[in-house]
């Protein structure tokens, strides 16, 4: 139970941090703020697709990094990996 809570919270906070970083990078790179709703008909296709791809990749990487760090901390604390995670050899 503790692992589920810890893993979920770490993924949520990582997602929030990734979103903030993505907005900064998008704004700096394009000179425009990211689309508020990429699915809205008024958003151009290139902008909508670009933001969807960038946000999907950023969230996926952030979640993976957070889960790995949380699992590493769990292993250091308990001596074994969390339930559902297996060692890759």
Q: How many strands, which pairing sense, and closed or not: the largest β-sheet?
A: none
Question: What's the average pLDDT?
Answer: 89
| Fraction of residues in helix | over 70%
Strand content of the residues, in percent? Answer: under 5%
Strand segment count: 0
Cα radius of gyration in angstroms: 17 Å
- What structural class is derived from the secondary structure elements? mainly alpha
- Number of helices in the DSSP assignment: 2
Low-confidence parts: none
Shape: elongated
**H/E series, N to C?**
HH
Distance between the termini: 26 Å
Characterization of the model:
The protein has 89 residues and is mainly alpha-helical. It has a domain at 2-21 and 44-78. It contains two helices and no strands. The protein has helices at residues 2-30, 45-78. The longest helix is centred in the last third of the chain and has 34 residues, at 45-78. It is elongated, with a radius of gyration of 17 Å.
Summed up, what is this model?
With 89 residues, the protein is mostly helical. It contains two helices and no strands.
List keywords for this structure.
89 residues, mainly alpha
């Amino acid at each position: 139970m503790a692992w589920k809570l810890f893993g979920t919270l770490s993924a949520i906070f990582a997602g929030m941090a990734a979103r903030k970083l993505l907005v900064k990078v998008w704004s700096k790179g394009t000179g425009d703020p990211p689309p508020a709703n990429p699915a809205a008909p008024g958003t151009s296709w290139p902008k909508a697709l670009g933001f969807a791809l960038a946000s999907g990749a950023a969230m996926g990487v952030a979640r993976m990094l957070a889960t790995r760090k949380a699992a590493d901390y769990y292993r250091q604390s308990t001596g074994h990996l969390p339930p559902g995670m297996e060692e890759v050899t």
